[in-house]
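Posting this for the archive.
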Amino acid sequence: MENTTPALARGLALLEHVARLQPVGFNRLQAETGLNTSSLNRLLRTLADRDYIRKNGDGKYNLGLKLLALSYGGTAVQAAVQSVHGILENIRDEFGVTVLFVLFLAAGNYILDKVICPDNVAMRDIGDLRTDYAANPWGHLRLLRMPEPERQAFLADAPPEHRALFSACGDGALHSGFADDRGLFFSYMRRIAVPVMDSAGTPVGALAAGSFRNLMDDAKALSLAQQLHRCAAHLIL
């Protein structure tokens, strides 16, 4: 019978590789770990079954929701994190949109979970990590909470089209309570985001939704934003 200590060490090392390389495919993981196909498949299946890792639409692996729940700790927080997928599914079914759960990490905005509407836009994939905050509504929510000197320094280095979007839409988020790009960045798509708060009232993430622009008029956008706000209230981290 296999000694559990080496098995545990291999599993932890595999998690570290996924964290460093995500989204990462099977072949790359096999090259990095040196594990044979059977052993790697067994470890990946075990980690996926327990939601420590997740496979995205391209068949590549990302860290899963369980690690976030464990990192925050606390029964209520873990329950909120683990319930997010069902919340995203309900929003998709009600409004016919693709929905994201975005986490604000020090390294950038991380797409932690996603539910896609097959008849609508795809948006970013699980595991996507970027710092293009001015290019999307959930990034606008993060920019608006930055100290003014930090925000201005960030915008000075951003591409002109990103700065133009934030200039056109950023102030609207302050007044309406949700960020809406109004289809100004991608002519075919409209994206909306509301903040997810921690217990101190600080934005630590966002619920975001996207739709083909011709399927999202202002009335629907407002109704969607209101529902995102209601759902975000149940995800206090």
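The longest helix spans residues 4-21. The radius of gyration is 19 Å.
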